[in-house]
Design a protein that fits this description.
It is built from 17 helices and ten strands. Strands 3-4-5-6-7-8-9-10 form an eight-stranded parallel barrel, surrounded by five helices. Strands 1-2 form a two-stranded antiparallel ribbon. The mean pLDDT is 95.
Length: 338
């Protein structure tokens, strides 16, 4: 397993890290401890958790916390006042049965209003720094699905790590955050490198992420097969020509342009952002059956309202990136509605 330095934290971390956001619904007492201990045996030494991930921290305590000195541990919580984030950090430590997080991430940033709550008097940052003084947190991170919000937090000089989408369907984080993070000495973690195994081809998507320039790709692995396949990709040593061919092939898929800023709204609650994100990739490489079924269901419901889209156009009016959202909705109805 290859290791890198996670920005100015100085932590020597494995290029492939362990994600847990689906652990609460995928935990199997006969399988999970075996999988997670095997991953540690392979040299993976960074695990990302979050208080919002249900019982994942309790399950981790049962499975691997007896090996706490073998890995770095991150936690995350929302943009809330200082008192609330302190309580959240203490709760996470209690559930995990440990005394500190190596990184605590400010999470769920869906608007710039979060900036004022995070950095204002009595805000999130103040609470995390108090936890640092108490030895409960070592470094401060930020995570968001939208590149703009991550960059705004990096600009403050207060965050040590940044986690963002890093997969070929959504390349904007790598393109727009990575240079900014490097300039500030911020460590980078790419989440959802295979979009929770929803995009195809899975192995090539992970390979793309691992060689995109980010420090670490963090991936959920809940079966031994998933773990072994991910580790094999992480340990692979593709040639420069092979990597360039992969990048060229993925770059040939037309980009959708959606930056996951969550500002577009539909009066009929059509998930315009979700439909726009996946249609081009679906046409080129296909999607997991579960995601395909979900999109078909959403497009079928949208068919009842799509005739109103041209008169409305609210989603496009709210989009800062010029994404032709109405066209994507119409296309989804044509290609997916049943």
């Amino acid at each position: 397993m290859e290791y890198v330095t996670l920005g100015r934290t100085g932590l020597k971390v494995s290029r492939l890290a362990i994600g847990t956001n689906a652990l609460s619904r995928k935990y199997d007492p006969d399988v999970t401890p075996q999988v997670f201990n095997w991953l540690l045996d392979q040299g993976l030494n960074y695990i990302g958790t979050g208080n919002m991930y249900g019982d994942c921290q309790t399950y981790l305590r049962r499975a691997i916390m007896h090996r706490r000195d073998e890995f770095y541990l991150s936690g995350k919580g929302g943009i809330v006042p200082a008192r609330d984030i302190l309580l959240g950090i203490e709760a996470g430590l209690y559930w995990l049965g440990t005394d500190h997080f190596d990184v605590w991430e400010m999470d769920f940033i869906r608007s710039m209003d979060a900036y004022d709550v995070a950095f204002g008097p009595g805000g999130t940052l103040e609470g995390i720094k108090k936890a640092q003084e108490q030895g409960k947190v070592r470094f401060i991170g930020v995570t968001s699905h939208c590149p703009d919000y991550v960059n705004a937090f990096i600009d403050t000089g207060e965050v040590d790590t940044a986690m963002f989408f890093a997969n070929p369907v959504f390349p904007y984080g790598v393109r727009e955050i990575l240079p900014h993070a490097r300039a500030h000495g911020v460590g980078t973690l790419g989440m959802r490198p295979t979009d929770q195994v929803q995009i195809r081809p899975i192995d090539k998507s992970l390979l793309w992420a691992l060689h995109s320039g980010i420090d670490v790709a963090i991936s959920g692995m809940y079966t031994m097969q998933e773990a072994q396949e991910n580790v094999a990709v992480a340990n692979a040593q593709p040639s420069a020509d092979e990597l360039q061919a992969l990048r060229d092939a993925f770059a040939a898929v037309p980009e959708h342009g959606c930056h996951n800023c969550f500002q577009c709204k539909c009066p009929f609650n059509i998930p315009v952002q979700r439909l726009a994100t996946y249609l081009n990739w679906r046409a080129a490489y296909g999607l997991a059956e579960e995601l395909e079924a979900a999109l078909r269901k959403e497009a079928t419901r949208a068919a009842d309202f799509v005739a109103f889209c041209d008169r409305c156009g609210l989603c496009e009016a709210q989009c800062s990136y010029g994404v032709p959202l109405v066209s994507f909705v119409k296309r989804a109805v044509r290609e997916l509605a049943g």
